[in-house]
Every structure is written in C-alpha cells, then in structure tokens.
Design a protein that fits this description.
The complex is a heterodimer of chains A (about 240) and B (about 650). Chain A has about 240 residues and is α+β, with helices and mostly antiparallel strands. Chain A folds into 2 domains: about 100 residues, Beta-grasp domain (Ubiquitin-like (UB roll), Roll); about 120 residues, Alpha-helical ferredoxin (Fumarate Reductase Iron-sulfur Protein, Chain B, domain 2). Among the domains of chain B are: about 140 residues, Succinate dehydrogenase/fumarate reductase flavoprotein, catalytic domain (Flavocytochrome C3, Chain A, domain 1, Alpha-Beta Complex), CATH 3.90.700; about 130 residues, Methane Monooxygenase Hydroxylase, Chain G, domain 1 (Up-down Bundle), CATH 1.20.58. In chain B, helix 3 packs parallel to helix 12 and helix 15 packs antiparallel against helix 16. Chain B is globular, with a radius of gyration of 24 Å. The chains are: A alpha+beta (about 240), B alpha+beta (about 650).
Chain lengths: ~240, ~650
C-alpha cells in the first residue's frame, strides 16, 4: 500500500505547530499503525530529518500510552481499539491519513503527538483508591461480593487511562475517565467507607484541572478502547448529588 | 570473551532452622526504624510496576521519604499491566490439596531445581497475603455466583490456585498498586518523577546513594540522592528485539548497577513463552502473548504429516497430532512453558509447523466451544480472542489460533541475598529485575506473585533493617560527578557518531543473533559464534549509528540508542553464561545435554549453583558460585508425563 500522511508537528508547547505531509510506500496491510510510523521514522532519521515523536509502550492495547487522532477520530475509526492495535488492513491503498495529538487544554502538547496527561494521575490522587495499607487486609473470603457486582466493577476498572474520551469530547470533559474509577470502587463493599468523599474530591479535581463538563454527547464511550459505558457518568452524577447534599 | 572464577558466595543471609520459620525469624531479627526517624530517611525506587509500585506505596505508608521514578508518562503504564492470566496463591480455597508446601514444591520443581529453597518458601507463604491485600484494595477478581473468588489451573500445577481478573489480571493488580501509590503521592510521602529514566547509579563510600536520571522531556541530567536505592526495573527480554515486553523495557538500570559492582545472577535464564502470535513480517516491532490460561481449554496440535497445506478445519481428527497430550499424558496441554515451547519448536523443525514459514502450531478451541458453548468461552477468554482477531485478521472462534514461542521473561537478573539486597550495600533489587525465585524456569502466574510479594511484604521489612543504621550522611561530590560525567559522556558519544544506520536496525540484528544462538536451543558452536559476532557488531554500532536530534528536549531516538548500547554488553554476558553452563536446565537448553527423549538434562554434580557474575572494567568477568542446597525437596529429573 502507498499512503499520504498529514502529521501534526509541534516542537514543544511554545511552538504553534503545523501539519506536515509525508509519503509512505510499500506498507504491508498486516502492519500495525505504529509499525507504519516506525517505518516512516526510520526513513526520516536516515534522511537527517527529525522523526515524529509519539507515545507508545506495550503495543498490545493495555498500557494506555499510545493515542492519536486519526482522520478526526481518537484511536481511529475501528471501534474499541487502541492506536497500537489498529492495523493497516483497515485503510485503502492510496489513502490520505491525518494524524493529530489529543487536543485538550489539560493535556498540553509535549512534542508532535505526545501530550502530558499528568492531570489524570492527579484525579486519581484526589481519591481514586481504597485506603488500605499493606498488611492490614482481612482474609479475602471474609467479604463475599455478588458476582454481578464484581463483573460490573471489573468492566469499569478496565479503563486504561489513555485519554481518548477527553480528546473526543466537544467539551474536553474527563467525566468518563473519572466516572469509571468511581463506578469500579463504588460497586464493591470495600469501596463504601470512602464512597462519598471519593466522588466529591475526584470531581473537584477534575474541574480544577480545567476539564469541561459532561453534556451527554456520548463521543467518549464511542471511542473508548475498552467500551466503558456512558452509564458510568450517570452513576458518578448520582453519587455526587447524594454525597454533596 | 573469557572469564575467571572467584570466591564462592557462602552466605545468602537466609536464617537457618526449619524452613517454615525462617521468614518469621528474619522478620523478628530485622531491626526496626522508629517512626520519627523514618521521616529523615530517603529511599529511591526506580520502576513502578507491580514490584516498584507496591514497594514505593508501602514504604510511603510506613513513613519514609520516597522518590519514585518511571520512564512512562504515568506509573500506571509499567509493563506489569500487560500480564494476562493470573496470580498464584496457596489459599487452598478449592480444597483440592493445595498448601504452602505444595506451591513451594511446584515452584522449585518448575524452576528445574535451580532456585533457592528459603526464598521460594517465603514466596509461597506470602502469596496468601497478596490476595487479601489486593481484594481489600478493590481489585475485581473473578468470582463465583456465591460471591467467593474463582480460580483456575495454570501450567506446571495440578491444583487450581490461580486467581484472575478475566485476561487482565496484571492490569487490575497494577492499578491496585498504582492507586495505593497515588494515595501516598497525595499524602506527600512519595515524590513521583514520571518521564525520567535512570542512567546510572551513585555509589559512595561503598554504599548505593543515588541515581542519575535524564528528564526525558527537557533532556536535563539530574542527580537524586538517598539513603537506599531500590531497582524494580523489570526484565531484559528486549535484548532479543522481538519479545512480549513493552517497547521501552530495557536493561540500562540494572546493567549500570552491574557495572558499579552489583553481581548479575544467571543472565542466560530466559523464558520463551509457548503461546504468542507468530511473526508476520520484517517490520514486526514486538510480539503479543496469548495467555497461558488458554491452554486450560485450547488443544495444541499440528498436522500428522509435514507439508499438509489443507485448512485446519479440513484436516480430520486422525490426521492431527495433539503432541502435548500424546507425549505428556498426565499434564497434557498444561506442561510448563519451557517444555511446551521446545515441543513446538521440535514439531516445526520436523516440517509440521503451520502458517507462514511453517513457524506456528494450532491452539484449537473447537472442543471447548462444543463442550461449554461459545458464550462460556467468550466470557472466559473474550478479550484475548478479540486481541488475536485484531492482530491477525482471523476469527479464533471458527479457525484455530496459530501460535509460536516468543521471548517473554528473564529469570536472571541482579543477584540478591535473602533480604533482596545486591552485592552493593544499600542497593535492593525486586521483581523481575532480580534473579531470585524462579530458578531456570518460571511457572505461569508466578511473576505477579513475586513482584507483589517483594514490594508489599518482603522489601519493607528487610530494607528497614538496613536503614536502621542510617541516615548515612553526605555523599562525596566526586562520586556524583563521576556518575554524571559517565552519563553525559555516553550521550555525547551517541549523538556525535553521525553514521548511516539507526539504533533500531542494530537492535534488530543483535536480537536475531541472540534468538538464533542464545534462544530456545543453545550449542557451544552457536554461542561461540555469537560471542565473536557481538563485539564486532557493537564496534560497528559505536562507529556507525545515526542518532538524530539533540541532548535537550524529548528525543526518543536517543533514548533507544542508549538502551541498545547496554543490550550489546548484556548480550555478551548472557552468551558467556550460557556457554559456561554446559548442562540443560529449565529454559536453558543446551543441545549437547538432553535425555534420550529430548528433555533438558541437568548436571547437578557440576551445576547446582547460581552463577553470579562480577563486572571488571577492562578485564574478564569473574564468576562467583552460590551452591544450591536442597534439604526439603529432592532433586530429580522433572517429569510431566
């Protein structure tokens, strides 16, 4: 396959940034999207150009490090897929592909397609945990959990913190990310003692970081690689109303 | 490359006495640090996977000043996140005959009698606390309808002791540790440094006192000092270029520490995982694992005859060879990883492999789907099937998966004593980065167990014993300067070569060399060839690599080049270790040493020891042997038949 790439290049937060066009040839349909970019970067390096900076690590869809807006869609058009799991067989030969970073004020661009998602860590710091120092836990079977609750908690807990939800949201909201953690911990008996303080603190931190509010657009769940449902946000709002009363 | 033999290691600091009581004894004999003094002590923890994340969180909870470092943009992304199948624990919730002693026995046997009894026993003891801790943190393990925890079987065991969270157990356990860590960041006990990579260790007055790191965003070289340093930087499987490791996984932190005096234990012990998605082309950047748990229900087979080009569904039952079930009737598809991998290699060598290049075997779920129904199979393995479909474009519900072995884990690592302390006082090494608990082959679902055992339970006790003698006062500036100039010198050199090949292209070539000569099967001839070729290739690398960009700012090509440079040196030591160990054991298979049936043949007379290598600048490495003494398990030829 031969492709034309239009890639966002930005040399640090102070730089204005611009789209730059590159041709890549002889792309195999079995390549992953990132492998296609590897090929481009090897060529740019040898030609004395600056390779395109992008975040990636596990390349198996679980670390949440990669993420780019491909043809206007966070992680590309294939549903429930991270950028690293997207393969070139889903593109047409001769296609033009635009590649941009996550765009949201709380995710400043570090370079090219790399953004700073430290704001997500700070939301977790605000309350995304159960306070249980090592060594203080009772026997695991002392507290049975309904299988349905455990399964639902697991589904919410599969969030990989990639930030696609924020990138896709017209308001730049981090509601799906925040709600996933609140739902995960709130569904479990272990999570009850801190349930109220958790939701209040995490929502406050989310606002403080400059993320927008949720208007139920649903773009977040559409691009979420793990398919975290919009219901999580409803749960977060219900918990928040109850706790903030 | 030659070596000399030095003084043996006689004392690993394990308490004597009955094995069940050793860890209790050590906990009692370990000195305590009073709470007011803990605040005055600083500990650096490098790496935020299961071991590093849990250690930093726990040390923070105890009141130490902790500085935590990771190269990723968040501690939640460490590669523990990708562990799929599960975590072992001797809970015996099933009442199927499990016990601490049985987990201990299975692990020592699984490691082909090359692990320390005392360490492994402690690991089995602590395993039960890990499950309790994780559940209390809200880790959503799979449960039964009665609300209790579900378990499954894993390779090398005949009991069901593996706890799991669908195919994402590593993710859920890591997020538990990450959340505990972030709680301590909020509490002010842990200072988190993301996008920072450790490039050297500061040793002063004989003690590990700090690290030199590069801020990957600004390019600035920073010095961080402390009273102790903990390395939790994972394994070095990426020396093979293609492995199941994350792209960033590297050996630099432990290799730099090795150069500063920490012995390297059993570098050649590599685990090749039997169930990975086969390579599809030259551009391949990494390999993806399909969890071992799939072998609970999937059946491994190849066509009976070589060159059978028919689609798998068109090959009738009696023309298929379910070779694991045939050769190992009592463990069947659940034989340990080293055995399953080599068996796959053997049938492919016979020309019976499937898929491109004949480098693959089938993992077939047709029977499981017929028996349990598609829904039940989807519930258990849905995410793994999806991952397979995404990568290969084939549907594993209707066509058997194609799998092939790939480098997955390194049992070798920095040598540590019973306290997890290296040969540099004040340098502790935990998780995959150390060599300690898995011998020559790690059993499935034991890596998560070891990482968390080290981080939550073992290190916090033993580190306290060391720190009780602290604080250790000022650090000699000359020692800091020495480490800083070493780091800046190397970066400058890499940037100034200006050659004609990228670091990745050298890495690929080195990886191929290692896979061919130091991979699933090793021979004296091959290893000698590799030992000849590696220095040549390294020389070429340093004279012809092209690293674009500058020292300042984000420069991912520079990061990669530095890692590749260290892989060259490590690769050489791995080959030397593999050459000197003329026996086969676990994942280390020397073609010259096999039973009549082609299984690994140990030589306990000559090789029942840990090989701990000492670095000598400008000279040959020195081999220190730590004899392995088995009092509770009888060494025997492993049999899974």
């Amino acid at each position: 396959m031969n492709l034309t790439l239009k890639v966002w290049r930005q040399n640090g937060p102070a730089d204005g940034g611009r789209m730059v066009t590159y041709k890549v040839e002889d792309v195999s349909p079995d390549m992953s999207f990132l492998e296609m970019l590897d090929v481009l970067n090897e060529r740019l390096t040898l030609e004395g150009d600056d390779p395109v900076a992008f975040d990636h690590d596990c390349r198996e869809g679980i670390c949440g490090m990669c993420g780019m807006v491909i043809n206007g869609v966070a992680h590309g058009e294939q549903r429930a897929t991270t950028t690293c799991q997207l393969h070139m067989r889903h593109f047409e030969d001769g296609a033009t592909i635009t590649i941009e970073p996550w765009r949201a004020a709380p995710f400043p661009v570090v370079k090219d397609l790399v953004v700073d998602r430290g704001s997500f860590d700070r939301i977790i710091q605000a309350g995304g945990f159960i306070s249980v120092p090592a060594g203080s836990a009772p026997d695991a079977h002392s507290m049975p959990v309904k299988k349905e609750d455990a399964d639902d908690a697991f589904d919410a807990a599969t969030c990989i913190g990639c930030g696609a939800c924020v990138a896709a949201c017209p308001n730049g909201s981090a509601s799906l990310f925040t709600a996933a953690k609140i739902t995960h911990l709130g569904l479990l008996p272990q999570g009850q003692p801190e349930r109220d303080s958790r939701v209040v603190a995490m929502v406050e931190q989310m606002d403080l970081e400059g993320f927008g509010g949720c208007t139920n657009t649903g773009e977040c769940t559409a691009v979420c690689p793990k398919g975290i449902p919009l219901d999580a946000i409803a749960q977060m709002n219900a918990d928040y109303l109850k706790a903030a009363r | 490359m030659n070596y000399t033999t030095g003084e043996p290691i006689r004392d690993t600091k394990a308490p004597s006495g009955p094995i069940e009581e050793r860890w209790d004894q050590r906990r009692f004999s370990a000195k305590l640090v009073n709470p007011a003094n803990k605040r005055k002590l600083t500990v650096i923890v490098v790496g935020t996977g299961l071991a590093g994340g849990s250690a930093a969180a726990t040390l923070g909870e105890l009141g130490y000043n902790v500085k935590s470092f990771c190269y990723q943009d968040s501690p939640r992304r460490a590669h523990s996140i990708a562990a799929q199948g599960g975590i072992n624990a001797a809970k015996n919730y099933r009442g199927d005959g499990d016990s601490i002693h049985r987990l201990f026995y299975d692990t020592v046997k699984g490691g082909d009698f090359r692990a320390r009894e005392s360490n492994v026993y402690r690991l089995a003891q602590v395993s039960v606390n890990i499950i309790d801790q994780a559940v209390a943190q809200g880790v959503p393990f799979a449960r039964e309808y009665g609300g209790l925890l579900d378990t499954r079987s894993f390779g090398g065991a005949q009991v069901s002791r593996t706890f799991y969270a669908r195919g994402q157990t590593g993710q859920q356990l890591l997020l538990g540790a990450y959340q505990a860590l972030e709680r301590q960041v909020a509490a002010g006990t842990v200072e988190m440094h993301t996008r920072h990579e450790m490039l050297d260790l500061v040793v002063s007055d004989g003690r590990a006192r700090g690290v030199i790191v590069r801020d990957l965003v600004t390019g600035e070289i920073e010095t961080h000092l402390a009273d102790a340093v903990v390395l939790a930087t994972g394994g070095y499987g990426n020396v093979f270029f293609l492995s199941t490791n994350a792209k960033g996984c590297n050996t630099t932190a432990i290799w730099r520490a090795h150069r500063r005096g920490a012995y390297f234990g059993n570098p050649c012990y590599t685990q090749i995982h039997p169930t990975c998605i086969p390579v599809s082309g030259e551009y391949q950047s990494k390999l993806t694992l399909m969890s071992e748990s799939l072998r609970n229900d999937g059946r491994v087979w190849v066509p009976l005859r070589g060159g059978d080009e028919r689609a798998p569904g068109d090959i009738p039952e009696d023309e298929r060879d379910y070779y694991l079930e045939r050769v190992y009737p009592s463990f069947g598809n659940l034989v340990p990883r080293d055995i399953a991998s080599r068996a796959a290699k053997n049938v492919c060598d016979e020309g019976r492999g499937v898929g491109p290049g004949g480098l693959g075997v089938y993992l077939d779920f047709a029977d499981a789907i017929a028996r349990l129904g598609r829904d039940a199979v989807e519930k258990k393995y849905g995410n793994l099937f999806e991952m397979y479909e995404r990568i290969t474009g084939e549907d594993p519900y209707t066509r058997p998966m194609r799998i092939y072995p790939a480098v997955h884990y390194t049992m070798g690592g920095l040598w540590v004593d019973y306290d997890l302390q290296s040969t540099i006082p004040g340098l502790f090494v935990i998780g995959e980065a150390n060599f300690s608990d898995h011998g020559a082959n790690r059993l499935g679902a034991s890596a998560l167990m070891q990482g968390l055992a080290d981080g939550y339970f073992v290190l916090p006790t033993t580190l306290g014993d060391y720190l009780a003698a602290g604080p250790f006062g000022g650090v000699d500036q000359a020692d800091v300067q020495d480490a800083v100039s070493e780091v800046t010198g190397r970066i400058g050199r890499l940037l100034s070569v200006g050659g004609t090949r990228t670091a990745d292209s050298y890495h690929r070539e080195l990886g191929k060399l290692m896979w061919d000569y130091c991979g699933m099967e090793r021979t004296e001839e091959g290893l000698r060839k590799a030992l000849e070729r590696i220095p040549e290739l390294r020389e070429e690398f340093w004279n012809n690599v092209k690293v674009p960009g500058e020292e300042e700012g984000l420069n991912q090509a520079l990061e990669r080049a530095g890692r590749v440079a260290d892989f060259f040196d490590l690769a050489e030591l791995m080959c030397l270790d593999a050459l000197h160990r003329t026996e086969s054991c676990g994942g280390h298979f020397r073609a010259e040493s096999q039973t009549e049936e082609g299984e690994a043949l140990r030589d306990d007379e000559r090789f029942a020891y840990v090989a701990a290598w000492e670095h000598v600048t400008g000279g040959a490495p020195v081999l220190h042997k730590e004899e392995l003494d088995y009092q509770y398990v009888t060494m025997s030829q492993r049999s899974y038949k």
